[in-house]
Predict the structure.
Amino acid sequence: MARLTIKALKTIKTIKEVQSTLESINPSNDNLVFDKVNDILEIYISDVIIENEA
């Protein structure tokens, strides 16, 4: 993986914390809204990494 800026790392850390919170609220992943939000957050992490490399 490319070297990430401090800002990118902080953003990813924050997203991971949100994902962890969602997981604790919905441990069985039976809520489609939480599942969809998690998918969007994963895409956002990818975007942060790609943007950082540019």
Notes: The chain has two helices and no strands. The radius of gyration is 12 Å. The chain has a mean pLDDT of 86.
